[in-house]
Amino acid sequence: MTGRAVPGPIYVVTDPGAALSVTDQALAAARGGAGAVQLRHKTATDAEFAALARALLAVLPADVRLILNDRVAVATALGPRVGLHIGQGDGDPAVVRARIGPDMVLGLSVEDPAQLRALPPGVVDHIGAGPVRATASKPDHAPPIGFGGLARIVAAAPCPVVAIGGLGPGDAARVRAAGCVGMAVVSAVTRAPDPEAATRALCDDWTQEEAQP
Protein backbone atom coordinates (compact mmCIF):
# COMPACT_ATOMS: atom_id res chain seq x y z
CA MET A 1 0.00 0.00 0.00
CA THR A 2 1.35 3.43 -0.92
CA GLY A 3 0.19 7.00 -0.43
CA ARG A 4 -1.04 8.69 2.72
CA ALA A 5 -4.30 6.80 3.17
CA VAL A 6 -5.51 6.32 6.74
CA PRO A 7 -4.87 2.74 7.91
CA GLY A 8 -7.71 0.56 9.04
CA PRO A 9 -10.45 0.20 9.91
CA ILE A 10 -8.93 -2.66 11.94
CA TYR A 11 -5.33 -1.91 12.83
CA VAL A 12 -3.30 -4.57 14.68
CA VAL A 13 -0.27 -3.66 16.79
CA THR A 14 2.33 -6.39 17.26
CA ASP A 15 3.27 -7.72 20.68
CA PRO A 16 6.77 -9.19 21.11
CA GLY A 17 5.67 -10.86 24.37
CA ALA A 18 2.95 -12.96 22.75
CA ALA A 19 3.31 -16.67 22.04
CA LEU A 20 3.32 -16.17 18.27
CA SER A 21 6.28 -14.52 16.60
CA VAL A 22 5.81 -10.95 15.42
CA THR A 23 5.89 -12.17 11.83
CA ASP A 24 3.18 -14.75 12.48
CA GLN A 25 1.08 -12.13 14.31
CA ALA A 26 1.32 -9.81 11.32
CA LEU A 27 0.46 -12.54 8.83
CA ALA A 28 -2.51 -13.71 10.90
CA ALA A 29 -3.79 -10.13 11.12
CA ALA A 30 -3.42 -9.70 7.36
CA ARG A 31 -5.22 -12.98 6.62
CA GLY A 32 -8.00 -11.92 8.99
CA GLY A 33 -8.57 -8.69 7.08
CA ALA A 34 -6.62 -6.04 9.00
CA GLY A 35 -5.92 -2.94 6.94
CA ALA A 36 -2.71 -2.16 8.79
CA VAL A 37 -0.13 -3.72 11.07
CA GLN A 38 1.98 -1.60 13.38
CA LEU A 39 5.41 -2.98 14.26
CA ARG A 40 6.06 -2.10 17.90
CA HIS A 41 9.10 -3.52 19.69
CA LYS A 42 10.49 -1.23 22.37
CA THR A 43 13.54 -3.34 23.27
CA ALA A 44 14.85 -4.09 19.75
CA THR A 45 17.83 -2.15 18.48
CA ASP A 46 17.32 -0.03 15.38
CA ALA A 47 19.20 -2.65 13.34
CA GLU A 48 17.00 -5.46 14.69
CA PHE A 49 13.88 -3.39 14.18
CA ALA A 50 14.85 -2.53 10.60
CA ALA A 51 15.53 -6.18 9.80
CA LEU A 52 12.14 -7.16 11.20
CA ALA A 53 10.43 -4.39 9.24
CA ARG A 54 12.06 -5.56 6.02
CA ALA A 55 11.00 -9.14 6.74
CA LEU A 56 7.40 -8.01 7.25
CA LEU A 57 7.44 -5.95 4.06
CA ALA A 58 8.53 -9.05 2.19
CA VAL A 59 5.59 -11.16 3.38
CA LEU A 60 2.67 -8.80 3.98
CA PRO A 61 0.15 -8.34 1.15
CA ALA A 62 0.48 -5.10 -0.79
CA ASP A 63 -2.89 -3.86 0.50
CA VAL A 64 -1.85 -4.07 4.18
CA ARG A 65 -0.05 -1.01 5.46
CA LEU A 66 3.04 -1.58 7.64
CA ILE A 67 3.38 1.18 10.26
CA LEU A 68 6.56 1.56 12.31
CA ASN A 69 6.24 2.66 15.92
CA ASP A 70 8.55 5.53 16.97
CA ARG A 71 11.59 4.62 14.83
CA VAL A 72 11.98 7.74 12.72
CA ALA A 73 15.43 6.80 11.43
CA VAL A 74 14.29 3.35 10.33
CA ALA A 75 11.20 4.76 8.63
CA THR A 76 13.31 7.34 6.81
CA ALA A 77 15.64 4.60 5.56
CA LEU A 78 12.78 2.42 4.31
CA GLY A 79 10.83 5.23 2.67
CA PRO A 80 7.11 5.67 1.97
CA ARG A 81 6.37 1.96 1.55
CA VAL A 82 6.06 2.05 5.35
CA GLY A 83 4.22 4.46 7.62
CA LEU A 84 5.27 5.92 10.96
CA HIS A 85 3.45 6.41 14.25
CA ILE A 86 4.86 8.68 16.95
CA GLY A 87 3.91 9.51 20.51
CA GLN A 88 3.81 12.80 22.37
CA GLY A 89 7.40 12.31 23.52
CA ASP A 90 8.87 11.50 20.12
CA GLY A 91 9.49 15.04 18.91
CA ASP A 92 7.72 17.82 17.09
CA PRO A 93 5.45 16.28 14.42
CA ALA A 94 6.40 19.02 11.96
CA VAL A 95 10.09 18.18 12.39
CA VAL A 96 9.34 14.48 12.00
CA ARG A 97 7.34 15.20 8.85
CA ALA A 98 10.29 17.12 7.42
CA ARG A 99 12.55 14.14 8.11
CA ILE A 100 10.30 11.48 6.60
CA GLY A 101 9.20 13.51 3.60
CA PRO A 102 5.78 14.35 2.17
CA ASP A 103 4.75 10.89 0.97
CA MET A 104 4.84 8.78 4.15
CA VAL A 105 1.71 8.30 6.27
CA LEU A 106 2.22 9.72 9.77
CA GLY A 107 0.13 8.99 12.86
CA LEU A 108 0.29 10.75 16.23
CA SER A 109 -0.83 9.51 19.66
CA VAL A 110 -3.12 11.92 21.51
CA GLU A 111 -4.56 11.58 25.01
CA ASP A 112 -6.15 15.03 25.37
CA PRO A 113 -7.66 17.54 22.92
CA ALA A 114 -5.20 20.16 24.24
CA GLN A 115 -2.40 18.23 22.53
CA LEU A 116 -3.97 19.10 19.18
CA ARG A 117 -3.86 22.89 19.56
CA ALA A 118 -0.31 23.36 18.33
CA LEU A 119 -0.53 20.76 15.57
CA PRO A 120 0.03 22.38 12.16
CA PRO A 121 -2.52 21.43 9.50
CA GLY A 122 -1.52 18.78 7.00
CA VAL A 123 1.39 17.38 9.00
CA VAL A 124 -0.30 14.34 10.52
CA ASP A 125 -2.56 11.97 8.56
CA HIS A 126 -4.38 10.40 11.48
CA ILE A 127 -4.62 10.52 15.25
CA GLY A 128 -4.32 7.48 17.50
CA ALA A 129 -6.58 8.46 20.41
CA GLY A 130 -6.49 6.75 23.77
CA PRO A 131 -6.13 4.75 25.78
CA VAL A 132 -9.89 4.33 25.79
CA ARG A 133 -9.58 1.77 28.59
CA ALA A 134 -6.71 0.62 30.78
CA THR A 135 -4.56 -1.97 29.04
CA ALA A 136 -1.74 -4.27 30.08
CA SER A 137 -0.25 -4.03 26.57
CA LYS A 138 1.31 -0.67 27.48
CA PRO A 139 1.89 -0.47 31.25
CA ASP A 140 3.05 3.16 31.18
CA HIS A 141 -0.03 4.46 29.36
CA ALA A 142 -1.79 7.71 30.22
CA PRO A 143 -5.05 7.63 32.24
CA PRO A 144 -7.92 6.08 30.24
CA ILE A 145 -10.05 8.64 28.41
CA GLY A 146 -13.22 6.55 27.96
CA PHE A 147 -15.56 6.88 25.02
CA GLY A 148 -16.50 10.41 26.06
CA GLY A 149 -12.89 11.51 25.92
CA LEU A 150 -12.51 9.74 22.60
CA ALA A 151 -15.43 11.73 21.16
CA ARG A 152 -13.90 14.99 22.41
CA ILE A 153 -10.63 14.24 20.64
CA VAL A 154 -12.50 13.38 17.43
CA ALA A 155 -14.36 16.69 17.62
CA ALA A 156 -11.09 18.62 17.97
CA ALA A 157 -8.95 16.63 15.54
CA PRO A 158 -7.96 18.10 12.16
CA CYS A 159 -7.71 14.63 10.62
CA PRO A 160 -9.27 11.15 10.99
CA VAL A 161 -9.01 9.37 14.35
CA VAL A 162 -8.30 5.73 15.19
CA ALA A 163 -9.15 4.57 18.73
CA ILE A 164 -6.76 2.47 20.81
CA GLY A 165 -6.48 1.06 24.31
CA GLY A 166 -8.25 -1.95 25.79
CA LEU A 167 -10.51 -2.42 22.78
CA GLY A 168 -11.82 -5.70 21.45
CA PRO A 169 -14.92 -7.63 20.37
CA GLY A 170 -18.15 -5.70 20.71
CA ASP A 171 -16.53 -2.26 20.73
CA ALA A 172 -17.01 -1.32 17.07
CA ALA A 173 -20.38 0.34 17.64
CA ARG A 174 -19.12 2.66 20.39
CA VAL A 175 -15.90 3.47 18.52
CA ARG A 176 -17.87 4.37 15.39
CA ALA A 177 -20.39 6.36 17.45
CA ALA A 178 -17.51 8.45 18.81
CA GLY A 179 -16.65 9.39 15.22
CA CYS A 180 -13.57 7.24 14.66
CA VAL A 181 -12.62 5.75 11.30
CA GLY A 182 -11.04 2.68 12.85
CA MET A 183 -9.76 0.93 15.94
CA ALA A 184 -6.33 -0.38 16.86
CA VAL A 185 -5.93 -3.51 18.96
CA VAL A 186 -3.08 -5.43 20.52
CA SER A 187 -3.97 -8.29 22.88
CA ALA A 188 -7.46 -8.78 21.39
CA VAL A 189 -5.59 -10.29 18.42
CA THR A 190 -2.05 -11.12 19.51
CA ARG A 191 -3.09 -12.97 22.67
CA ALA A 192 -6.17 -14.61 21.16
CA PRO A 193 -6.19 -18.41 20.70
CA ASP A 194 -6.67 -17.86 16.96
CA PRO A 195 -5.36 -14.39 15.96
CA GLU A 196 -6.58 -14.72 12.38
CA ALA A 197 -10.13 -15.55 13.49
CA ALA A 198 -10.01 -12.79 16.12
CA THR A 199 -9.04 -10.25 13.47
CA ARG A 200 -11.76 -11.47 11.13
CA ALA A 201 -14.37 -11.16 13.89
CA LEU A 202 -13.31 -7.56 14.58
CA CYS A 203 -13.50 -6.74 10.86
CA ASP A 204 -16.94 -8.35 10.63
CA ASP A 205 -18.14 -6.33 13.64
CA TRP A 206 -16.96 -3.12 12.01
CA THR A 207 -18.55 -4.00 8.66
CA GLN A 208 -21.86 -4.85 10.29
CA GLU A 209 -21.90 -1.54 12.13
CA GLU A 210 -21.04 0.26 8.90
CA ALA A 211 -24.03 -1.38 7.23
CA GLN A 212 -26.49 -0.22 9.88
CA PRO A 213 -28.92 2.48 8.62
What does this structure look like?
With 213 residues, this protein is α/β, with parallel strands linked by helices. The protein has one domain: Aldolase class I (TIM Barrel), CATH 3.20.20. It is 37% helix and 16% strand. The chain has eight helices and eight strands. The protein has helices at residues 22-32, 46-59, 72-78, 93-100, 146-156, 172-177, 187-190, 195-211; strands spanning 10-13, 36-39, 65-69, 82-86, 106-110, 126-129, 161-164, 182-185. It has an eight-stranded parallel barrel, surrounded by five helices. Helix 1 runs parallel beside helix 8 (195-211) and helix 2 crosses helix 3 (72-78). The longest helix has 17 residues, at 195-211. Mg(2+) binds at residues 70, 90. This is Thiamine-phosphate synthase. 4-amino-2-methyl-5-(diphosphooxymethyl)pyrimidine binds at residues 38-42, 69, 109, 138. Condenses 4-methyl-5-(beta-hydroxyethyl)thiazole monophosphate (THZ-P) and 2-methyl-4-amino-5-hydroxymethyl pyrimidine pyrophosphate (HMP-PP) to form thiamine monophosphate (TMP).
